Amino acid sequence: MINNLKISIPIEEAEVNDVGNYFELLKLPGEFLLIQQEDSQFYFLCTNDCPIEKICLLFDWYIVSRDRFNGSLLIGAGLAGEDHAEGEVYRLKDEQTLSLWRDILHFTFMSDFVRQFFPYTNHFKGKLQVDNALCFYIHDYHPVSHQKEISTYQKKVSNLVFRFKEGKQSALVAKLFSLAILRMPFFKELENPVLIPIPAATRERNIQRFARFNYILAKRLKIEDGFKAIWIKEDREQMKGQTHRDKIFNLDFNTRYIKGKNVLLVDDIFTTGDSFVQMKRKLIELGARSVIGLFFGKTILK
């Protein structure tokens, strides 16, 4: 029986979305409410005995935050898949509890009182043409050191950029990138795509920042992981924001990952574009069919 499980989605979406996984929820204990929003975000409230991670795993959803609400309830937020259905899924004992839980989630995540620490934006905001190559970015990035007053949202972007550079939040940033890339009409038409990061200045930073991220993102996109396409022979000084300097002199390239491939060249921040141009030209010289730049943010200095 499914009397205690409710699915609330628009009629027009019910016909085009596979709701088969929802019936797997019947086998799991506990009470829960999941509210799915536009732009792939979802919020949840559940009892302690509810295996919320298993529920999200059924749909390949990613939990961004999960906190204790009180002694008996957990609250959190996350990112659904590209083809999620906007609406609600819940199993609760009565309408009064449902109304109360809805109010809690709306107040916590959807009102002016927002407690998110990171931005969940997962579509490309801007597009550039750099050295005859397309480049896409998700956020305007305002460096804290250059800007005394920045908005709350801009601070969230900076928070996530700093954590990513430290090698943290790799799974979250990979999820955001994957949703943005999968929305690009031409992505599914790319033949032999490979994901290659623009290396950091040192081996340690490069592994810390990109190894896990590149693996997760390539796996989500179902394309080749090209982290090993470029090897740092020796560490060099940081040259972020500098132009007219050779930024690839210390790199070795493995053409197995490059020749005949359409390269998705990914990095955290686009500033001058100098690193991208040097990398792009080298990859084309080594036989890449095309190079597309993908960036989490584009630096705004004013």
From TrEMBL:
Pfam families the record matches: Pribosyltran
Residues covered by the Phosphoribosyltransferase domain: 213-292
Superkingdom, natural source: Bacteria
Transmembrane segments: none
Family: Belongs to the ComF/GntX family.
The name this protein goes by in its record: ComF family protein
